[in-house]
Amino acid sequence: MRPVFKLLSAIIAFPLLTSCSSLGKGVAEAFLEKQQSVDSRICEIWGKPFNGLDPFLANPSGKMKVLMVHGVGDHLAGYSTQFLEKLAKELDLPVMASQYKNISLTSRTDTSKNLGNLRINRLLSKDRSKELLFYELTWSVITAKQKEVLAYDNSGEYSFRRAEMNDLMKKFSNDTGPDPIIYLGESREDILVSFAQAFCWMAKSDWDGLPNDVSQSCSFNDDTAANNIRHDQYAFISHSLGSRITIDGLQRIASIVDQRDDDFRQALKNKEIPIYMMSNQLPMLQMGRKMPDVSNQKAAYCRAEGEKYQQRMVSKTPIIAFSDPNDLLSYAIPNGFVDKYLDSRLCIDVTNININVATIFDAFGLGRMANPIDAHVGYDVDDRVVALVAKGIGGKNTAKIVNERCRWTETID
After folding, report:
1. pLDDT at 338 (0 to 100)
2. What residues contact residue 215 under an 8 Å CB cut-off, 6+ apart?
3. Nearest to 275 by CA among 204, 195, 210, 206
4. pLDDT tens-digit profile of 255-269?
């Protein structure tokens, strides 16, 4: 999708440039270059310290495993490559397995279903002492079939009637707009099963035990999954609708696990699993939805003295929510939202990060502006975002760019 976003970004910027054609091309380019030469984009953080991925890479008894979940629009396997390469550089993991692995996800109850693709990459330090297993979930095949109902609108029969630029924007809208609507319908369960299957493969197997180029379902019901949960470290990285999928997927697993009393459940409830949410949309995507099964009971589930402490799903789920104020589809997580709308058994703490990932510039006297499309898709290639995911804030390994470019307000209970 990124080439489409770049083209749309150019479309948005085009009127600003052409309106100043009297200044001459050279003057206009010099003006923009001067503004971009000093990066004054904000980065403001409110929350508790968090470690990022780096401290868990040299784990002698287990692995650091990360699952990435995309947002709206059709995606192809490999969509996370640019982000993964930047992350590998920040974490100093220059060695990569020569071949990634692909698993075609399916349901345990209906193996005829295509629930998307899970691609796994293995990254290592030069001395092989550090390792990261990176899992990329591509679920958009589930919604692609239903979006075919709009295919006629992209055909020559209708598209030729639009101005060229409007046609590009309409096709973009047809690709991305239906996904949140479809997610509220019958496909929601398949998408959540896809997430659960991805998490199952992440929990169940190390690199050598993962299958490749197969269509296969995964089950949590064996000793391997429980043992890995005890020793491995986990994190999720999500974008837009992917964040809602991740939260709903965990809440669904919490409801299922809550009915069990086995080694897997016992191992899981001692884990801390952070979620790094890019272009966070949880408040908007909560509208019209029912409340979770368990809410407003964080103290009972998440404090050692709480009466339901033994029924928690995990020990803690830190949410690190990245939002560009110029991203029209992104929202900070307000006070009280977690307690009211998210499952108490996840023991969620929130860190809000207000960050400009899009450049703000003076539009030749028309006012300051930032491209809203860049503000929506620029998180995973922003050096500060990558550094925060890699090395967190408030610790001794915090990246230099974060210390220099971000303002942190630490919060306490």
Report:
1. 94
2. 103, 104, 105, 106, 111, 114
3. 195
4. 777 666 678 888 888
Secondary structure of residue 272 in the 3-state scheme: strand
> DSSP state, 177?
T
Domain ranges of the chain: 42-137+189-410
State residue 155 phi and psi, 5-degree precision. -80, 165
Residue 379: pLDDT band with limits 50, 70, 90: very high
Which of 53-62, 114-123, 139-148, 159-168 has the largest mean confidence? 114-123
Q: Nearest-CA neighbor of 44 among 356, 411, 392, 358?
A: 356
Backbone CA torsion sign across 85, 76, 202, 283: positive
19-51: pLDDT as tens digits = 444 444 454 454 445 545 567 799 999 999 999
Helix axes 383-391 and 81-90, enclosed angle (nearest 10):
60
Quick one: DSSP state of residue 379? Answer: G
Element (H, E) at 29: helix 25-37
The fraction of the chain above a pLDDT of 70, given in percent, is 84
Extract the tokens encoding 326: 């110029």
- Spatial CB neighbours of 100, under 8 Å, sequence gap ≥ 6: 119, 120, 121, 122
